[in-house]
Write a structure and sequence with these properties.
Helix content: 25-40%
Order of helices and strands: EEEEEHEEEHEHEHEEEHEHEEHHEHEH
Bound molecules: adenosine-5'-triphosphate
Number of strands: 18
Largest sheet: 5 strands, mixed
Strand content: 25-35%
CATH architecture of the largest domain: 2-Layer Sandwich
CATH topology of the largest domain: Nucleotidyltransferase, domain 5
């Protein structure tokens, strides 16, 4: 018998949850191709190692951008590779697959994701909106008649949703999340220190010394890059408060989007959110000071999920089981 699988098809990482086993695959969403023959040379972790280090005839690409499929063929090849690697196909049967997508994915994009999964060897393919899956994975009982709110801050998108009775009551998906914070840091260092730093350095700065709340963290880091004026290698010292300054506007954009969602919900659900609070998930939930920042602006309790990076993948498995057991869809 084929084993059912849930896929968190993320901008940064792909996580796969296999029925009865849990999360068995967690690899970067990267494909390396030979530019002449267009042949796929490596996928996932192997391809990620090649980013920034490829000779002219090899290109490492990210098939997903801003939470949606930017390159359909490559997404399909990446999914096929991962599904084959897991060896979940049965002798005669194909695995049911649940994939999650951001809330405002268009019909055409949804069709593209579904086709990619079918062509990759999937049997019945279900699509679920990412915040719903994330909420289930974070342990919220979304099937009860009360409002639950979840904010999933990933690499490409921040998905904000209020759920009740198993469905989304109000939601928004904005294309500002972890990747944008990295580019904010790169721009800040360029403008204030005339220093060009790479994507990986910005990611380290964000995680190791970054904060989204002024004064909440007091760390500093020696940051190395290439001087813009003379082209020579240079080191500067960056502080947590400077990172806060760099990412301030982007964090405000996520808060404004959250306020807009809160502004359109029925009063009973608003009362539930005051009681139950907001759950933060996705890699961005690990940003220093984020719970305090959100509760200061939104005036409701904010809780960080205990497993923010795995919630969507865990939720795919739980929801797939729920769908199959209830004979739904
Ligand atoms: N400790 C941390 N502090 C701050 N940010 C972090 C931390 N760990 C991971 N991140 C960020 O979380 C993001 C990835 O999160 P996640 O895996 O939830 O996204 P994704 O599902 O791949 O993206 P999307 O949902 O947009 O498709 C990256 O931008 C990464 O830099």
């Amino acid at each position: 018998m084929a084993k059912d699988i849930g896929i968190d098809l993320g901008t940064a990482n792909v996580l796969i949850n296999v029925q009865g086993k849990g999360i068995v695959l967690n690899e970067p969403s990267v494909v390396a191709i030979d530019t002449k023959s267009e042949r796929v040379l490596a996928v996932g972790s192997e391809a990620y190692k090649m980013v920034g280090r490829t000779p002219n005839n090899i290109r490492a690409i990210r098939p997903l951008k801003d939470g949606v499929i930017a390159d359909f063929d490559m997404t399909e090849q990446m999914l096929s590779y991962f599904i084959k690697k897991l060896n979940v196909k049965g002798f005669m049967s194909k695995p049911n697959i649940l994939i999650c997508c951001p809330t405002n994915t268009t019909d055409i994009e949804q069709k593209a994701i579904r086709q990619a999964a079918e062509k990759s060897g999937g049997g019945k393919v279900y699509l679920e909106e990412e915040p719903k899956v994330a909420a289930v994975g974070a342990g919220l009982d979304i099937f009860q008649p009360h409002g639950n709110m979840v904010i999933d801050i990933g690499g490409g998108t921040s998905d904000i949703a209020i759920l009740s009775l198993g469905d989304i009551v109000a939601s928004s998906s904005v294309k500002v999340a972890g990747d944008k914070l990295n580019s904010d840091i790169i721009n800040y260092v360029r403008q204030n220190y005339n220093l060009h730093i790479g994507e990986h350095t910005a990611e380290r700065i964000k995680i190791e010394i970054g904060t989204v709340l002024k004064g909440h963290r007091q760390k500093e880091m020696n940051v190395r890059g290439r001087g813009i004026m003379d082209g020579l290698p240079k080191t500067i010292i960056l502080t947590s408060d400077e990172v806060e300054e760099a990412v301030h506007d982007t964090m405000l954009a996520i808060i404004v989007a959250t306020k807009e969602v809160l502004g359109i919900i029925p009063p009973e659900i608003a009362a539930d959110i005051i009681d139950r609070g907001i759950v933060l998930t996705g890699g961005g939930a690990l940003l220093d000071g984020i719970d305090e920042l959100f509760s200061n602006h939104l005036k409701v309790p904010v809780v960080i999920s205990t497993t923010p990076l795995n919630d969507v993948a865990n939720g795919t498995g739980m929801l797939l089981e729920h769908i199959i057991n209830s004979g739904k869809k």
